[in-house]
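Incident log entry.

Two folding requests arrived from the same account within the same minute. Monitoring flagged them as a possible duplicate submission, but the sequences differ. Recording both here for audit purposes.

Request one:
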Amino acid sequence: MKIQGRALLHICCAPDATVPWKELLDSGMETVGYFYGSNIQPENEYKKRLNAVIQLSEFFGAPVLIDSYDPLSWLIKLKGNLYFPEGGVRCALCIKTQIERAAQIANSKGFTCLGTTLTISPHKKPGLINGIGRSVARRYGLRWIDVIWRKNNGFLRSVEMSKKLGLYRQNYCGCILSIRGEKNGAK
């Protein structure tokens, strides 16, 4: 990987961050994690995921920025789109909401690059995610880290590393609607 600059890495969950965060750090890029989490419900699930992100941050010796937990703002942003099927309009809007917030933080804190861990999941659409990321990053004057992290057995490596580190691994994407286990809903 030949990206230079200071990167903010949007983290959806600790297991999905294992490979991307390590690879960015190993490349020599200053990389700070960013955990959004307002899309995660219920709150006790959010806390489990937050603790795992903190655990991974400590393992890597890399800082993580943690946004405030405000699930009501997430629900308001997605109102009218909440009952679309898993993997559709609701998910695209959720991804855009998370990446947009990460871009705002990156821009305000002087980062030059922005990326996300979302493309490591075999249940997500990397073309959609990277398309949203490129568009949002461009608007904020950031370089998008355009990587599909699940390539080269990235997902399997993340599962192995998560087990080795004893990271909490959830069984649904995050929002209360994804608990239903619809297509593409569980990780």
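Request two (distinct sequence, not a duplicate):
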Amino acid sequence: MVVDDEPDVIFAVEFNLKKFNEEYEVIRAESGKRCLELLQEKQIPDLILLDIMMPEMSGWETYNKIKENPSWEKIPIVFLTARVDRTAENAGSFLGEDYIEKPYDPEDLKRRVDKVLSAKK
């Protein structure tokens, strides 16, 4: 699942992941609220790529809501964000499985997503 308020970012992530592996299925969520709705509808992904800076519900708030729910708490979360300050990087690296800064290198994104998915198995 890719959670980002910028549709172009969601499209680019999906395109770049599928370029390397057609088997990836990407669930699109344009907000933290939509992410939670999809999870409630039982669309449970293997991994969530989560933007931090979003209107209404930030990535931090979305993260907290996901981790509060026993059905979702084990879903790996990778922060994918343009926020590059040291505090965000430290918190994102500590809370999530990884922290990736935008703009990202497509091959690096795939490698890091694969690494998190492999660790989950």
